[in-house]
Every structure is written in C-alpha cells, then in structure tokens.
Amino acid sequence: MSKLPHIGTSIFTVMSQMANEYNAINLSQGFPNFPVDKRLTDIVTKLATENVHQYTPMSGYPPLLEKIAKLTYQSYQRVINPKDEILITAGATEGIFAAIQALVNANDEVIILDPSYDCYEAPILLSNAKPVRVPLNDDFTPNWESISQAANHRTRLIIINNPHNPTGKTWTKHDFIQLEKLLDSFPSLIVLSDEVYEYITFEQLHISVHHRPKLWNRSISISSFGKSFHITGWKVGYVIAPEHLMKEIRKVHQFLVFSVNSISQVAISEYLDIVDVYNLGNFYQLKRNFFRNLLKETKLELLPCEGTYFQVASYKKISDENDVSFSKRLITEFGVATIPISTFYANGKDTKCIRFCFAKDDTTLTQAAQHLMKL
Asked: How far is C-alpha 36 from the chain's CA centre?
C-alpha cells in the first residue's frame, strides 16, 4: 500500500522526457545550461588531489559554516551562530524535508500557498499531517484574509517561498507585517521560508525572514548554493534556524544523509572568498530583459518577473486549451518545452499560464523565441 498514492511522475520529468523525445528546446526544468564559473571548477580540480574526500562533520564543513554566517550578516545584518544555527543539506529539498519531518507531528496542519513547488506536500503527508492549500491572489500576492481563515491551533507550519517559484513574485514589507501578525495570533506557529532564489531579484531588493528580528526565533530559512552558483547538480543547500529548532532538524538530517558531499563543501567554502553573490541579480536581470524583449514579438502576454529565473506568460489570446494540453502541444508542434502553472495548484486551477526558465544561454533563448513566434 502506497504512503503517497496520489503522487506520480512529476510534471518536470514528464516535460523533460517529452522535450527529449521531440528534440524540443527545454525551457521547462529550472537549471542553467551555461558553464560554471571557471574559478570554481579550478578550485575543484585543485581539491581533487587533496585530502578532502572523507566525511565532514554532520552539520557541515566548519569553515563553510563560518562563511555562511558571514554572508548572512553581510546580506541581512543578522548575527548567526555557525555552530548551532546552520546546517549544510543535500540540496534545499533535503533541508525542507528534514525540517518538516522534524517539526510536524501527526494531525498537525501545514499551510502551503498555491501555486507551490511540488516538494512541500510529500513530507507533510509522510508525517501523517494535513497540508492546507491556500491560493494566492490572481496577481500571485498572498491573500492574508484567506491565510488567516486557514490558520488554527493545529497549524504547525506556514511555508512561504520568496522569491516565488513558479511566478517570480516577491514579498513586500506589508506581507511580512501580516505574517508577524499571524504569528502573534498563533504562538506555536513556525515559518518555513524557502529562499533559494534570494540572490536573484531585480528592481526590488529581496526581503528575507532574516530582515525581521521578530521572526528569528520562529523561522527556518532554506537556501541553495546550487541556485546561486549555477551548480544545481551538486545538490548543496543550507538551513538556518534557531538552536531549539535546529537541534530537532539535525536529528532527522543525521539519518537521511548524515553529512553532505565533502569536496563540494570545501570547494564552495573557498569560492565564497572570491565570488560576489550580489552580482547574480544583475546577471539574471540581463537575461530576463533579453528574453522578455524576444517574446514581445509573440502573441504571449508576459506577467511581471521580480525574481528567480522564471518567466510566466499567459496564452489566453492564443488558445482555450487547458495549460497541460497546450504545453504538450507546444512541444510536439512548436518544439519548446515549458511547465503548465496548473500543476502547482492542489485543485489544478487553470489560469492559461505557462512557465519558462530563462537560465539559458542567449542562443537557446533566441531559438526558443523564434519557435514561439509561430504560435
């Protein structure tokens, strides 16, 4: 008997398989197709012959923990204790899984804001808890009235994702003020803040739970070196949480992976000495602008993109098809793979929108736009 009976093959796998089958340009999955910084690959080459191939401490390579604490202070002016409040994880997904498994008990409830990334629900169900899916507004901002109505004394976690995948929306100070009010009403409620695109924002600077001292003792942040440094296949992320929560998260992490790939941790630690993470937003803003300018020549209607490397577009002027059918036809007839937004909703809400990943080289983006002009 399945513990996750309604969960099948993910839409990301389906679309990538179809892209391969039809030799389509794959703008569906969120990973870059351009080279990693040569400075980083040179570090890996050097480390390959050094003594860095055994287990690191369970919570992470100590110099890397120190540098994450330094980065957090530089970015958010928050002082973090690297020994007790940081955990290196096997990607952000493992951090999310470990946090939920550690802190959510049977019959608890967890609020998820839809459209939402697909890794949140499974660990909730495996905890014998209840995911409570609350739709965002039509412009993908939080609906605080609906969120407040969904919260109750059984609500253990609220999961927020900022900058937001799939929509590229970012939170405002008003949203964090409303979140703090919600926590005032429910003293046992904890925030799980998925911030893997924290360094990929554009006109407006990213606002983090780390900016909000009132949230520090009741929030867990999830970050991703894979997203920040174009190394998604390395699967290295990190969690920041107050010691009383981190103590429980580490217990689960210890029996999931024990410790994370050693050479990756040492390489990232050295790379942090020479890389400027604050240039990342400018890099992707140029890519966003380049891609949006290309798509102006199509019949697609572009929605705002404030962060991440995803661009959502409406095809209402092109077709009345549901978004899954339209996305599959986009592959088979026009040679471009995307992700339908309805798959991020529990109820399959169809807004006639699709998501493109623009973390691709200019040639790939140009070729994709030429195909889409035929719509």
From this structure: 19
